[in-house]
Design brief:
The complex is a heterodimer of chains A (480) and B (330). The longest helix of chain A is centred in the N-terminal third of the chain and has 38 residues, at 70-107. The radius of gyration of chain A is 23 Å and the shape is globular. Chain A is mostly helical. Chain A contains 19 helices and no strands. Chain B has one domain: SGNH hydrolase (Rossmann fold, 3-Layer(aba) Sandwich). Chain B contains 14 helices and 9 strands. In chain B, a hairpin with a 2-residue loop joins strand 4 and strand 5. The longest helix of chain B is centred in the last third of the chain and has 30 residues, at 300-329. Chain B is globular. Classes of the chains: A mainly alpha (480), B alpha/beta (330). At the A-B interface, helix 1, helix 8 and helix 19 of A face helix 1 and helix 7 of B.
Chain lengths: 480, 330
């Protein structure tokens, strides 16, 4: 089920009414049933994967607690890792590696007909497998006690607001909340959650879905577009993916909040980052901290010799790229970010010297502007690989980006007024971001006088209804 | 909880009022062709019913002239072609029209076209205006995921641009791009023809309401429409309407052209339904360029010619089969 569907508009109020009408101790049953229904409304048979992952991790964690030696614990951890990564590999990566293997062999004139596993990618598979994996690793590390209640653990794996696209929650944060479920209908919290949902819908339906029309046109026909058309499409994609994914996160966090549960923040105005490392502290926070805690630190983090530190960083970003999709475009995207980060560390002192030399540090605003702009350009360039349908398309787009076609400066398939509206809605969002400063959208709005608050609600609702892209577009991150 | 619901109700009431006000403002920019289009369908007289009903998208709306069928065949006809209507919406509209028709039509001509399985499910902007039964309208709105369709101003979203233009310049331009000189049983007599020869022959424009991918839902609903009409014992004919030869040549190079032909052949065979003009060969090259509004829509002069030929076809091939039931009803 999509958040931006009429189905959800019907589903959520029903769940909400039943939830607050149900005694605390039985609420987990209602939420679990609702979560499974939410998932099954997409493709019912894939629920089996969630059940397998849930069952194995529940069992492995309990066994880890009951055995005495570290070696025995490790056996159960490996069972959990193999199960989750096995599911992920089978459904997401098998064809990719199989085809890549075939391509490599064909370079040596060895022609081998690789087997194909022709299945639909289960929605949210990368999210819930990573969430359960973190639980198993935490139990192994002794950070978390294993959950004894199978039903509540199943709810932790499948909690519907964040099941298919995160935030990827840690058991240490989410499990205690799901164990309680003793939340009353509190006006402020419910309204706060609804506000966040409204803002998420605005970002998804009004911005991301509108921009998608332009971006898809250009990126699906890379040979036909040049210069400014590609530049606009690439800038639009930067905002499309941000609004698509952060919009989803806002709706997820808001939905959970209405139910009384706090999910972690997933985005913090990433395009205001002044460095690549800051960008990753603001973008998809739940995934970047996951990789930091469970991969980067496991590899040794930065407590190693320098070359090994760079290697750890690079591998982490490479794997992060692959996590996003079984395609070389994502691997290149991850590698680019790894390269950016290592380059920024290596050149840090030289860059500081240049800043001093140009006296840019005397005017912090100008310096900040340059830094934000530079990071945006670098990140946006990497989005070309992320969005392109394949590597060939990505290089065509980069090549065509530098071709100036004066006769067709703008994309003739999209009207000028439509372009103006697209830039206008992006501007509205960024103005809100600037006004919010350090606070969240809902906190900022709740501090305004009633007439401003209600005006904002009306305008956003009207924008969603009248200026939204054609409804029902899937969220980009569903494919991951 | 009480405070929350009181405020929610106040919000919804204010929103309803704002929506109604916006909807009225949008009517300022209602161009004559749009107005004529919306009003033309209100002529559908369900009490006396029509013998022949044409249902489909803009190509159906533009290309079948009911008066020609009445004149040549002696049976009443109504054109319920709706701009931008997808097969998904067509199902609910067909149900609605048949349910409120008494007696029921004897023949439904389903206007078909190459892009019909590429319509986005959510796009329908006009069809909800014509559906009277909420039991048909509500599922259409829910399944379409078209949030704007739920609101009065949202359904008139098409009028944002002309309204703005009217407010800023005082002028109103056409929105559905027709110059309407009269209405005939749902058919708009449009005398405007193409203005740009290059556009007349070029089929590469990417329309915003079309998806790049095949939309299975559209095929499913087209089949549902066929099955519904069969259940109601109503004879069905599929009909492709003419394209400009150069436009057709361009269209034939698209993969969706062969894909569409294959689907229609299969459906025709599976359900035993006659398909008229499956290869777009009928009258090919016999129209003047001025008979076309654009590459795949005729204007009034062309539509009269096509309707006349199609009426002859119906007389020879279809009416011989259903003459008896027509005779009984008449």
């Amino acid at each position: 089920m999509l958040f931006n569907s009429i189905d959800f508009i019907i589903f959520f109020p029903i769940v909400l009414v039943l939830y607050f009408a149900t005694p605390y101790k039985w609420r987990w049953i209602l939420l679990l049933a609702a979560s499974y229904y939410f998932y099954m409304s997409w493709k019912a048979e894939y629920l089996i994967l969630i059940l397998v992952s849930t069952g194995i991790d529940y069992f492995a964690a309990l066994r880890m607690k009951s055995v005495s030696t570290k070696a025995k614990k490790k056996k159960y951890l490996i069972l959990s890792i193999f199960t989750n990564l096995g599911i992920l590999f089978g459904f997401k990566y098998f064809n990719f590696f199989s085809n890549s293997f075939r391509d490599i062999l064909s370079q040596f004139n060895i022609f081998y007909d690789t087997p194909a596993f022709d299945v639909l990618l289960p929605v949210g598979i990368s999210f819930y497998t990573f969430q359960t994996l973190s639980y198993s690793i935490d139990v192994y590390r002794g950070v978390k006690e294993p959950e004894k209640h199978l039903g509540k653990f199943a709810l932790y794996v499948a909690f519907f607001p964040q099941l298919v696209a995160g935030p990827i929650e840690r058991s240490t944060r989410l499990m205690p909340q799901l164990n309680l479920l003793n939340y009353k209908f509190e006006y402020d919290r419910v309204v706060d959650g609804l506000r966040l949902m409204l803002w998420g819908f605005f970002k998804k339906i009004v911005i991301a879905d509108r921009l998608a029309n332009y971006v898809n046109l250009v990126y699906n026909n890379p040979d036909d577009y040049f210069g400014l058309q590609i530049l606009i499409a690439t800038i639009f994609f930067a905002f499309q993916i941000f609004c698509d994914f952060s919009g989803y996160s806002d709706i997820a966090i808001g939905t959970a909040k209405v139910l009384g549960i706090d999910l972690m923040e997933n985005f913090n105005k990433p395009y205001f980052a002044k460095s690549i490392s800051e960008f990753w502290k603001r973008w998809h926070i739940s995934l970047s901290t996951w990789f930091k805690d469970y991969l980067y630190i496991s590899l040794g983090g930065n407590r190693v010799v320098k070359w090994r530190w760079y290697y750890n960083l690079f591998i982490t970003f490479l794997v992060s790229g692959l996590w996003h999709g079984a395609n070389w475009t994502f691997v290149i995207w991850g590698a680019l970010h790894g390269f950016y980060l290592i380059f920024s560390i290596v050149t840090n002192s030289q860059r500081n010297k240049i800043i001093s030399l140009l006296k840019l540090n005397q005017n912090r605003f100008v310096l900040k502007l340059i830094q934000v702009f530079t990071v945006f350009v670098l990140v946006d360039f990497s989005w070309i690989f992320f969005r392109a349908n394949n590597l060939g398309d990505a290089f065509t787009i980069i090549g065509n980006l530098f071709v100036i076609d004066l006769d067709n400066l703008l994309n003739n398939s999209i009207s000028f007024s439509s372009l103006a509206v697209n830039f206008g809605v992006i501007a509205i969002m960024e103005i809100f971001h600037l006004l919010q400063r350090g606070t969240k959208f809902s906190t900022y709005i709740s501090a305004r006088p009633t007439y401003i608050r209600w005006s904002v609600y009306f305008f956003i609702t009207i924008f969603i209804l009248y200026l939204g892209g054609q409804g029902g577009k899937e969220f980009i991150y569903f494919q991951f | 909880m009480k405070k929350f619901f009181v405020r929610l109700v106040i919000f919804l009431v204010i929103f309803f009022l704002v929506d109604q006000a916006l909807s009225k403002i949008l009517d300022i920019g209602r161009p004559p062709d749009y107005k004529a289009f919306i009003e033309s369908k209100s002529e559908y007289n369900s009490e006396s019913g029509f013998d022949i009903l044409f249902i489909g998208d803009s190509q159906t709306a533009d290309n079948f002239v009911p008066a020609v069928f009445e004149e040549k065949l002696g049976y009443s006809a109504f054109n319920f072609g709706v701009y931008n209507m997808s097969p998904f919406e067509g199902y609910y509209l067909t149900k609605d029209l048949i349910e409120r028709s008494s007696p029921k039509p004897k023949l439904v001509v389903l206007g078909t076209e190459v892009n019909m399985f590429y319509f986005m499910v959510s796009d329908g902007r006009f069809t909800p205006f014509f559906i009277e039964n909420p039991l048909n309208l509500i599922p259409l709105l829910i399944k379409s995921d078209s949030f704007e369709s739920f609101t009065s101003a949202g359904r008139k979203g098409y009028l944002f641009k002309p309204t703005l233009k009217k407010i800023l310049t005082g002028k109103t331009s056409g929105t559905v791009d027709r110059d309407v000189v009269g209405v005939d049983n749902g058919y708009l007599k449009n005398i405007k023809h193409f203005s740009n020869y290059a556009k007349l022959t070029n089929c590469t424009k990417n329309w915003a309401f079309l998806s790049n991918e095949f939309v299975q839902v559209q095929k499913d609903y087209f089949i549902k429409t066929i099955e519904y009409l069969r259940k109601k014992d109503i004879k069905v004919v599929f009909a492709n309407t003419p394209m400009h030869p150069a436009y057709l040549e361009c269209f034939k190079s698209k993969p969706r052209f062969d894909e569409y032909k294959k689907i229609m052949e299969d459906l025709s065979e599976t359900y035993g339904i006659e398909q008229y003009n499956p290869d777009y060969e009928v009258l090919l090259g016999e129209f003047e360029d001025e008979d076309f509004l654009n590459g795949d829509h005729l204007c009034y002069s062309g539509a009269k010619i096509f309707s006349s030929v199609f009426a002859d076809y119906l007389n020879e091939n279809i009416f011989s089969q259903i003459k008896q039931s027509f005779a009984v009803s008449k």
